[in-house]
Structures are given as structure tokens and as C-alpha cells.
Design a protein that fits this description.
- There is one protein chain.
- By secondary structure, this protein is mainly alpha-helical.
- The chain has one domain.
- Helices cover about 85% and strands about 0% of the residues.
- It is built from eight helices and no strands.
- It is elongated, with a radius of gyration of 20 Å.
- The C terminus is likely disordered.
Length: about 230
């Protein structure tokens, strides 16, 4: 027997919406070396990025909220941790949204400043861009990864989805966290071939997992038996 398919279908759709919004939230102008020269001319790109990053908040939190009642049947503590980390990630998403309009203000001032003022604004802009990278590609990814690690622990132990899918999730999470540490220690920049390649396994697994939720859902019997065995060990 499978879980309420409406619940898992909505969760899967939210996951795909979040992935699409994540791709559309990228602001290429901010990745350019002389981005302050480009910001004013790409104001719409910055605002579109902010809108889509905001859309990621209800998508990511909604995914966890829809799955939580089902997951807690197997393990209440881990499912609560999964939800908690999603809420933490939502906070980092919101910080990322707030940071984007600041670049518009900075770019506008940069365009009107004299040489000395422009130099000072450039010196201010670089730490701001670094802060955004650390929020979006380190703090956010690690909090999401820790939460998803708990999610796939539940699913792997309960066998409510095929174990290969959960194991793939573990691998992808590990690589994504590794990529975050590479960014943290300045061993790679974001939106580079290396960074994207390391994150590719998790991106593909997330899509496959979302499709599985939409088309198959969870095995209710497996979740219930997982709870029973945890109770017996306790």
C-alpha cells in the first residue's frame, strides 16, 4: 500500500518548482569581474533573481511540511530535524533575497561616483558579493544537506523508496557539502565547471526523487514497519 498520493505528488511538484526557481535565481551579471559596471544595465535580471529565490522559500519549506506527517510515522525525531533544517535553510534564502537589492543600490551609486568614490564602492561591493556567496553556496547548502541527510536516513532504513535512490542521495549530499567547503576556503568560485560538476549528482538525484514521489509515492507498509523496528530496538 502506498501513501496518500496527493501528498507525495504535491511534494514532488514543489521540489521541481524549487529546482526550476533555483536555476532562474542565478544572476549572471554578479559573476562578472566588473559587475558594478553592469548592475544598473541589468536591473531586471537582479530583480528576477530575487523573485525566483523568494519562490524557493515556500517550495522548499512546503516540501518538508507535506512530507513531515508521513515521515514521522517512521521516525519522529529525524523527521522533525529534517523540517527544522528546512526552516533554517529558508532563513538563509530570505537573507539571499534581501542582499540582491543592495547590489542595485551599490551599482547606482557606483555609476554616479567619481574615481575615488567608485574605488571605495568597489571595495565595499566585493565583501558584499562574498557574503552572498557564503549565504547561498555554503550556509544554505550545508543546512539543506544536513536536513536531507536525515530525510534519506529515514527512507533508507524504512525502504519506503528503493535503497539505491536513498544511497544516491547520500552521495550527492556529500559532494554538495564538499563543494560548499571548496567555496568557503576559496578553492573554487561558484558557477564554475568544477562547482557545477560536483553538484551535478545531487541535482540529478533530486529530480529523479521528485519524479518518484509524483509517480510512485512512499510505501506505507515500509514506513510503518520502520517505526515498529525502531520501537523494538528502543
Amino acid at each position: 500500500m502506498h501513501t496518500n498520493r496527493r501528498v507525495t505528488t504535491i511534494a514532488g511538484v514543489l521540489a521541481i518548482v524549487g529546482m526550476i526557481a533555483g536555476a532562474l535565481s542565478i544572476v549572471p551579471a554578479l559573476e562578472e569581474p566588473r559587475y558594478l559596471d553592469l548592475i544598473s544595465a541589468h536591473e531586471r535580471q537582479v530583480m528576477v533573481g530575487a523573485v525566483f529565490q523568494f519562490i524557493m522559500i515556500p517550495s522548499y519549506v512546503g516540501f518538508a511540511l507535506y512530507l513531515y506527517p508521513t515521515l514521522r510515522v517512521a521516525n519522529e525525531a529525524l523527521s522533525l530535524g529534517f523540517l527544522g533544517f528546512r526552516l533554517i535553510a529558508a532563513t538563509f534564502h530570505f537573507i539571499g533575497v534581501i542582499l540582491l537589492p543592495l547590489f542595485l543600490v551599490l551599482g547606482h551609486e557606483f555609476g554616479q561616483a567619481d574615481a575615488l568614490g567608485a574605488s571605495r564602492l568597489a571595495a565595499l561591493g566585493e565583501p558584499l558579493r562574498t557574503a552572498r556567496d557564503l549565504v547561498n553556496h555554503v550556509a544554505l547548502i550545508i543546512s539543506l544537506g544536513l536536513g536531507d541527510l536525515l530525510l534519506f536516513c529515514i527512507l533508507y532504513r524504512s525502504r519506503s523508496v528503493p535503497r539505491w535512490l536513498s544511497a544516491w542521495g547520500f552521495l550527492g549530499i556529500g559532494l554538495a557539502v564538499l563543494a560548499s567547503f571548496l567555496v568557503l576556503f576559496r578553492l573554487t568560485d561558484v558557477v564554475t565547471p568544477l562547482y557545477l560538476a560536483i553538484n551535478a549528482p545531487l541535482a540529478l538525484q533530486s529530480f529523479v526523487f521528485a519524479v518518484w514521489l509524483i509517480t510512485k509515492g512512499f510505501d506505507t507498509n515500509a514506513l510503518t514497519m520502520g517505526h515498529y523496528h525502531v520501537g523494538r530496538r528502543g
